[in-house]
Amino acid sequence: MATAQDKKTNPANDKLELPKGYKPMTGGQMRLETPELPGHHLHWFRGTPGRLAQARQAGYTHVRTDELDINNFDLAGDALSHGSTDLGSNISVVSGEGADESGQTPRMYLMKCPDYIWDYKNGLVEKQNADTADALNGGTVGKGGAGETGNDVGKRYTGTSNSLFKPK
Fold it and tell me: Rounded distance, CA 82 to CA 61, Å?
């Protein structure tokens, strides 16, 4: 009968070495999942010229294939490659939608934004949301708007018991 001592691994055997990027088959894999890039926020953008230009104006730059490896879903390609299906050095994948009006398959581009710009933008959004919540709680939404009369202001709901917009 085997004892607990017999079940231990033999220290003389070689240490188990798994291939780079090993993930067991038992877990799911998200197609656009990416590892973290220290100091940056990563985001996938639809590859339309207007959307990419807007991302650049917001401080985003393209992530290059030498910076990061993504999930490789390329059926006939190199399983050990970086995962991008772009012919250039930018990381991109086919979006999975049908062809656009020009017959091209839309692409998704991985872009990065420095954390300090991301934090600044989030601060602006949080302030805007807080101002809106204060206005809703105080009953001042639309106050002084074009065409608004004093009678309109007097009939506005100003309930203060509603905690819907108060942060938890």
Answer: 18
The enclosing H or E element of 45 equals: strand 40-46
- The strand pairing partners of 93, in sequence order, are 108
CA 54 – CA 43 distance, rounded (Å): 13
Read off the pLDDT band of 81 (50, 70, 90).
low
Q: How far is CA 147 from CA 4, 143, 152, in A?
A: 84, 10, 10
**3-state SS class at 52:** helix
pLDDT tens figures, 112-158: 999 999 999 999 999 888 877 777 766 555 555 666 666 766 666 65
For residue 44, give the DSSP letter.
Answer: E
| Predicted TM-score (pTM) of this structure | 0.59
Question: Which DSSP string corresponds to 89-141?
Answer: SB-EEE-SS---TTSPPPEEEEEEEEHHHHHHHHHHHHHHHHHHHHHHHHT-T
